[in-house]
Design a protein that fits this description.
The protein has 5 helices and 3 strands, in the order αααβαβαβ. It is of the alpha/beta class. The protein is globular, with a radius of gyration of 13 Å.
Length: 102
Protein backbone atom coordinates (compact mmCIF):
# COMPACT_ATOMS: atom_id res chain seq x y z
CA UNK A 1 0.00 0.00 0.00
CA UNK A 2 1.36 3.42 -0.94
CA UNK A 3 1.88 5.97 1.81
CA UNK A 4 0.04 9.22 0.96
CA UNK A 5 2.43 11.27 3.13
CA UNK A 6 5.39 10.01 1.13
CA UNK A 7 3.68 10.81 -2.18
CA UNK A 8 2.81 14.29 -0.89
CA UNK A 9 6.43 14.82 0.13
CA UNK A 10 7.65 13.93 -3.35
CA UNK A 11 5.01 16.16 -4.92
CA UNK A 12 6.18 19.03 -2.73
CA UNK A 13 9.87 18.55 -3.53
CA UNK A 14 9.86 17.97 -7.29
CA UNK A 15 12.20 20.86 -8.12
CA UNK A 16 14.62 20.04 -5.30
CA UNK A 17 14.64 16.37 -6.24
CA UNK A 18 15.42 17.20 -9.86
CA UNK A 19 18.29 19.44 -8.80
CA UNK A 20 19.67 16.67 -6.60
CA UNK A 21 19.59 13.91 -9.21
CA UNK A 22 20.02 16.08 -12.30
CA UNK A 23 23.74 16.44 -11.72
CA UNK A 24 24.44 12.72 -11.39
CA UNK A 25 26.28 10.83 -14.08
CA UNK A 26 24.54 7.93 -15.77
CA UNK A 27 24.64 4.96 -13.43
CA UNK A 28 26.98 2.24 -14.76
CA UNK A 29 24.53 -0.38 -13.45
CA UNK A 30 21.81 1.15 -15.63
CA UNK A 31 24.10 0.90 -18.65
CA UNK A 32 24.80 -2.77 -17.84
CA UNK A 33 21.04 -3.36 -17.54
CA UNK A 34 20.49 -1.74 -20.95
CA UNK A 35 23.29 -3.81 -22.49
CA UNK A 36 21.42 -6.97 -21.44
CA UNK A 37 18.39 -6.00 -23.50
CA UNK A 38 17.67 -5.80 -27.22
CA UNK A 39 16.74 -2.68 -29.15
CA UNK A 40 13.02 -2.02 -28.86
CA UNK A 41 12.58 -4.20 -25.73
CA UNK A 42 9.84 -2.88 -23.42
CA UNK A 43 10.95 -1.80 -19.93
CA UNK A 44 8.91 -0.75 -16.90
CA UNK A 45 10.53 2.08 -14.93
CA UNK A 46 8.57 1.78 -11.70
CA UNK A 47 8.77 4.84 -9.42
CA UNK A 48 10.52 6.64 -12.25
CA UNK A 49 10.80 10.02 -10.53
CA UNK A 50 11.92 12.64 -13.05
CA UNK A 51 12.59 9.86 -15.63
CA UNK A 52 16.32 10.33 -15.90
CA UNK A 53 16.82 6.56 -16.25
CA UNK A 54 13.85 6.27 -18.61
CA UNK A 55 15.25 8.96 -20.87
CA UNK A 56 18.62 7.19 -21.01
CA UNK A 57 16.93 3.88 -21.82
CA UNK A 58 14.79 5.54 -24.51
CA UNK A 59 17.86 7.17 -26.03
CA UNK A 60 19.52 3.74 -26.14
CA UNK A 61 16.64 2.30 -28.20
CA UNK A 62 14.38 0.77 -25.57
CA UNK A 63 10.64 1.38 -25.26
CA UNK A 64 9.93 2.58 -21.72
CA UNK A 65 6.86 2.70 -19.53
CA UNK A 66 7.74 5.28 -16.85
CA UNK A 67 5.39 5.09 -13.86
CA UNK A 68 5.35 7.05 -10.60
CA UNK A 69 2.80 7.45 -7.80
CA UNK A 70 3.60 11.16 -7.41
CA UNK A 71 1.66 13.35 -9.84
CA UNK A 72 4.30 16.07 -9.60
CA UNK A 73 7.02 13.70 -10.78
CA UNK A 74 4.88 12.54 -13.70
CA UNK A 75 4.13 16.11 -14.75
CA UNK A 76 7.81 17.04 -14.56
CA UNK A 77 8.81 13.95 -16.53
CA UNK A 78 6.35 14.64 -19.32
CA UNK A 79 7.15 18.34 -19.48
CA UNK A 80 10.92 17.93 -19.47
CA UNK A 81 11.30 14.75 -21.52
CA UNK A 82 8.00 14.30 -23.47
CA UNK A 83 8.10 10.63 -22.49
CA UNK A 84 4.48 9.64 -21.72
CA UNK A 85 5.06 8.95 -18.03
CA UNK A 86 1.93 7.95 -16.18
CA UNK A 87 0.71 8.06 -12.62
CA UNK A 88 0.16 4.71 -10.94
CA UNK A 89 1.01 2.89 -7.74
CA UNK A 90 2.72 -0.46 -7.31
CA UNK A 91 -0.65 -2.08 -6.73
CA UNK A 92 -1.96 -0.71 -10.05
CA UNK A 93 0.58 -2.72 -12.04
CA UNK A 94 -1.08 -6.07 -12.64
CA UNK A 95 0.26 -7.12 -16.00
CA UNK A 96 2.25 -10.26 -16.71
CA UNK A 97 4.61 -11.12 -19.57
CA UNK A 98 4.51 -7.54 -20.81
CA UNK A 99 8.02 -6.25 -20.13
CA UNK A 100 11.46 -7.54 -20.96
CA UNK A 101 12.87 -5.62 -17.99
CA UNK A 102 11.80 -3.79 -14.85
Amino acid sequence: MTDQKTIAAYNGQVDNYLKMVGELEVDPLLLRFIDGLKTNDYVLDLECGPVIASSVMRDKGLRVDPVDAAEGMVQLANHKYSIAARQARFSDIDTTNTYQGV
